[in-house]
Design goal:
481 residues, alpha+beta, Glutamine Phosphoribosylpyrophosphate, subunit 1, domain 1, Rossmann fold, 7-stranded antiparallel beta sheet, 6-stranded antiparallel beta sheet, 34% helix, 24% strand
């Protein structure tokens, strides 16, 4: 899961890209990059590196990125080994100069890469699926010109690429293209604004990065939709290829920030509904539980925990304080790094916890690493009982569309019952949201729940090769740690 942002038709594209990426930092903390173009001179400017937005994109670097169109990316790795060569956006000089950044995962990436190599593309320089996507797009685009060439290149991508992806493409001297996969698995929104009589357009993984910069008329790109915003302020939208809508349900629960709206549904309200639904479930199935207080695992579960406490009629407390200098442990690239980060991430407030029956709410349980540590922290701080609540149902199957649990053996719920997981994490009671409750909270059944149900929206024909490749990459990274 990554963050992408693109802008067309502004005086200083880099400044808007910077603000956009800052507001998408929660989607990826591994690396960041930008490509801009001055359509008056045809010059292209690039910068990318490992690190956070504020570390990589210094004031000096941002001011050096001239131009009125640009794309940017914050990286959360699901392929590759964390090398600088894998940092997006990728750029090729042919035919006009094309840069590409995307959020998601290409299921048939190993096959496509092998095919390109067999065709003589020995110049592939990375382990990134973005580079393969750029090759496919640029080759098809080179066969034509103008707007029609853009949409033909998008169609070619839909034909060749299997997976979940939202993509932004910079075409030097031309404009910005943006498109989603046919199922709309990965999110992408667009907005417009007018300044000094000029209209500009921007595209983002989340609405917050647009609204905070004054963009309005914000809409989600539809599954399989492509948009081209040229450098003269004109825009064209087309549904290139569409299938059954399946936006990722995990976005509402974990990845998106609460300020955003996904598919027209506010993330904050969805998380509150999850808390209310869990409260109803607890009152119905476990009325005997004596709960002294409800507390969240910061930050994503706060709205759900608050709503849960209100519905149960018990106090809501902040008993776990997040260290603001430690990032999101789930999106760190390997297990060893995650384990070390969990030790630093949360600090208990003993005066709140000691002698109490605690109901602690987290957004989800994936590997069980964080959950086990949280229960341990609460017990060490004097909790009498620990009831652990997950706002997401048991994750029993890998995700191949951009969330980094691509191997079944990573998932604690893949081969264990709820009672066994309860014992493993050390909780007195473990309570999960169910699939029906999740759908009701989001407000639709048209979501991707493959990690919960094993019902994938695309073919999974090439997932074995992808899983094996990820295993090799993790082994490489672990060997360096």
């Amino acid at each position: 899961m990554c963050g992408i942002f693109a802008v067309s038709g502004v005086d200083e594209a880099a400044a808007e890209l910077y603000l956009g990426l800052i507001n998408l930092q929660h989607r990826g903390q591994d690396a960041v990059g930008m490509v801009t173009c001055d359509t008056k001179t045809g010059e292209v400017f690039r910068v990318k590196d490992i690190g956070l937005v504020s570390d990589v994109l210094t004031e000096e670097k941002v001011s050096s990125l001239k131009g009125n169109i640009g794309i940017g990316h914050t990286r959360y790795p699901t392929v590759g080994v964390g090398d600088r060569r894998e940092v997006q956006p990728f750029f090729v000089k042919r035919p006009d100069g094309i840069g590409l950044a995307f959020n998601g995962n290409v299921v048939n990436y190993p096959l496509l890469k092998e095919k390109l190599r067999a065709d003589g593309r020995v110049y592939l320089t990375s382990n990134s699926d973005a580079e393969v996507m750029l090759e496919i797009f640029s080759e098809e685009y080179a066969k034509g010109s103008g707007t029609e060439a853009v949409f033909k290149a998008v169609r070619k991508m839909h034909e060749e690429v299997i997976g979940g992806y939202s993509v932004v493409v910079l075409i030097a001297n031309q404009g910005i293209a943006a498109f989603r996969d046919p199922n709309g698995i990965r999110p992408l929104v667009m907005g417009e604004k007018q300044l000094n009589g000029k209209k500009s357009y921007a595209f983002s993984s989340e609405s917050i990065a647009l609204t905070i910069q004054g963009y309005n008329s914000i809409t989600d790109l539809k599954p399989g939709e492509a948009v081209f915003a040229d450098n003269k302020g004109k825009i064209e939208r087309r549904i290139v290829e569409t299938s059954k809508p399946a936006p990722c349900s995990f976005e509402w629960v974990y990845f998106a920030t609460v300020e955003s709206v996904m598919e027209g549904k506010p993330v904050y309200e969805t998380r509150k509904k999850l808390g209310k639904a869990l409260a109803e479930k607890i009152k119905r199935k476990w009325p005997e539980l004596k709960v002294d207080l409800v507390m969240p695992v910061p930050d994503t579960s706060r709205p759900a925990a608050n709503a849960l406490a209100q519905e149960l009629g018990v106090p809501y407390e902040e008993g776990l304080i997040k260290n603001r200098y430690v990032g999101r442990t789930f999106i760190m690239p390997v297990q060893k790094i995650r384990e070390n980060a969990v030790k630093l991430k949360l600090k208990p407030v003993e005066s709140v916890i000691k002698g109490k029956n605690i109901m602690v709410v987290d957004d989800s349980i994936v590997r069980g690493t964080t959950s086990r540590r949280i229960v341990q922290l609460l017990r060490e701080s004097g909790a009498k009982k620990v009831y652990f609540v997950s706002t997401f149902p048991p994750i029993i199957s890998p995700c191949y569309y951009g969330i980094d649990f691509q191997r079944t053996e990573e998932l604690i719920a893949a081969d264990k019952t709820i009672e066994q997981i309860e014992k493993e994490i050390g909780a007195d009671k473990l309570i999960y949201m169910d699939v029906e409750g999740l759908e009701n909270a989001i407000g639709t059944k048209e979501v991707c729940e493959a990690c919960l149900t094993k019902n994938y929206p695309t073919t999974t024909k090439h997932t074995k090769e992808l899983t094996e490749l990820r295993r090799k990459h993790i082994a490489q990274v672990t060997g360096k740690c």
